[in-house]
Amino acid sequence: MNRIDQRFDELKRQGRKALIPYITAGDPGPEHTVGFMHALVEAGADVIELGVPFSDPMADGPVIQKACERALARGTRLVDLLDMVAEFRQSDTRTPVVLMGYLNPIERIGYAAFADRAAQAGVDGVLVVDMPPEEADEFGPILKQRDLAAIFLVAPTTSRGRAATICAHGEGYLYYVSLKGVTGAATLNAQDVAEHLAPLRELTRLPLCVGFGIRDGITAAEVAKVADGVIVGSALVNRIAEHADTPEVIAGELASVLSEMRTAMDA
Amino acid sequence: MSVSAKGETPNAKPGLSDLTRLPDARGHFGPYGGRFVSETLSFALEDLEKTYHSLRDDPDFQAEFDVDLAHYVGRPSPLYHAKRWSESLGGAQIWLKREDLNHTGAHKVNNTIGQALLAKRSGKPRVIAETGAGQHGVATATVAARLGLSCDIYMGAQDVERQKLNVYRMHLLGARVIPVESGTRTLKDAMNEALRDWVTNVDDTFYIIGTVAGPHPYPQLVRDFNAVTGREARRQSLEQIGRLPDALVACVGGGSNAIGLFYPFVEDEGVAMYGVEAGGDGVETGRHAAPLASNAPRGVLHGNRTYLMSDEAGQVSDTHSISAGLDYPGVGPEHALWKDVGRVEYVTANDKEVLEAFRELTRMEGIMPALESAHALAHAKVLAPTMGRDQHIVVNLSGRGDKDIMTVADIDGITF
Does B7 touch chain A if contact means CB atoms closer than 8 Å? Predict the structure, then answer.
């Protein structure tokens, strides 16, 4: 059984909701990423989304764009991320890791070669922002053969028909994008999110996780009431940006943002 | 479509008439094209596709488009025999398809007129666009002014610098020009930012893409709106030359003016076609914007799969060209397929050759071309002497050069 499914089973039994932090790998330098991952787990992360830096992150706001620029300036490549995950796995064999990014870096390696190496490194899921299920008929089965979950986005603008297709193809969890816009753009409306999640429950048994617009313990707790998981990205990446010149304090900063959310969600 | 087919030429060479029937239902041109976008935009693209397909064969819509092209754009544009220049090159006769004489000074307006009609039908009060040289931005601001739509244009900060005149034109037309400081500060970054705007404001905003790239259905509809150029050129060739030309030449950045000229000739086997990409400092230096001619790897950017200049790690490369309008690392997916099947030959002209062609046409024919179009002229200059005097080349003079005067003056060391 895939680590993601295991983790959501455990959480369900415990009556808890998943807390899923996102950081861009290689920001502010590739040597820090594995340490950050462990710090996030200690602060209460259930799943880690590791962002693959890309030169043209079209769905991201300025916070994650700049994170990509910092990571790329330090030469972070997709193959380096796989090494990071392998290193992380030496001391953490339980926390699921999902790679999130854009298609082109994967295309350069080749779908099968990438999937082989990702599975070997200990990756559990892949979310390609610019690959909807319609374009995934080649890549999807390649991931499945290696027990890597293909995770897809659902947006407020997704029609019921499309949602059904996405649910049929999705694995691991569904990533519900809480608002129209790019990452880090605004604060979500929990009531609005609840209204959009209800029809998805009828379509799928996949856990529904919500991202975009979650900034602090209060928003995290609100979302946790209606969703199975809470995804937080820009709020963490902001801290990395603020302390990019003193990387030794970042792990502590990330832990404090995440612990506040964990506490609020579990209260 | 399959990944394994990405690097290979399709097994069976499609017939020429098959080529004109693309894209398929999902927006693919063989292994290229498609709709690689984040989920929030999927519904808007499905919507646009439905609207476009219902209007494409609607005689009322086509009539409205044709009337605008005739009375607002000033079509048909002439096919002009550049006798003196042809004579001096000592080979084939060169004919210029004068898209520079269109309202706003380039071919771009053909497409913005068409998309503005779609925007009007969609009822959205705001349009956005990306622009490189500023021609598409001006053409979009123009149709927005005419329809009373609010208009924001994204333009790379570097291009804002080198195309000041067009920036001011857009301001005068009532558009807001937003300089894009991210990435390489050129056309691709402007397109990223326009996509970010669209994903945020998708309910009330129509995105007028300026080239035959982007997610389906944009490559198809931008081609169809531009194809008026080729239809006219075909008819004019029969009238003025008495037969079809032997060769067509057009510059290729994203590839909209080239597709507009080429598409109606695709099935005419005897007509050779040359797409001229930006050679920059020379393809061998790596400082260029020629994904097809340099045989760049296949990749995915801005919603479609195509030839894409990127490094080993899949990061999109910096591009270099004297011409802001061609400074783009990708190319329309239909061009990618035409390269693979050998229907069009893709070549380059470097900055130096382009400037020579710019000066030569200006001095010999009294026509000042855009630096983009001067790429096509530079290749015609190479091609014509290899052909007979009784042979004919049609070059798409896609835009006029007024906007580039400052760039050329700068190279000449002149400050105003």
Answer: no
Residues of B in contact with A151 (CB under 8 A): none
Among chain A residues, the shortest Cα distance to B181 is held by A62
Residue B63 token pair: 């009539």
What is the distance between the alpha carbons of residues A27 and A68, in angstroms, rounded to a whole number? 7
Task: Return the bridge partners of B131, or none.
Answer: B155
Cα separation, B327 vs B348, in Å, equals 13
Task: Name the catalytic one among A5, A27, A46, A49.
Answer: A49
B398 as an active site residue: the answer is yes
- B329: chain A residues, CB-CB within 8 Å: none
Query: ipTM of this model?
Result: 0.95
- Distance, in Å, from the CA atom of B3 to the CA atom of B223, rounded to the nearest integer, reads 26
Q: What is the pTM of this model?
A: 0.95
Is A49 a known active-site residue? yes
Task: Domains for chain A: give ranges and CATH numbers.
Answer: 3-266 (3.20.20.70)
**8 Å CB contact of B38 and A130:** yes
Domains recognised in chain B with CATH numbers: 17-67+108-222 (3.40.50.1100), 76-106+228-411 (3.40.50.1100)
Q: Please report, in tens digits, the pLDDT of each residue of chain A (267 residues total).
A: 799 999 999 999 999 999 999 999 999 999 999 999 999 999 999 999 999 999 999 999 999 999 999 999 999 999 999 999 999 999 999 999 999 999 999 999 999 999 999 999 999 999 999 999 999 999 999 999 999 999 999 999 999 999 999 999 999 999 999 888 888 877 788 888 999 999 999 999 999 999 999 999 999 999 999 999 999 999 999 999 999 999 999 999 999 999 999 999 998
What residues in B contact A156, CB-CB < 8 Å? 40
Put simply, the answer to whether A153 touches B310 (Cβ < 8 Å) is no
> How far apart are alpha carbons A28 and A157 in whole angstroms?
34
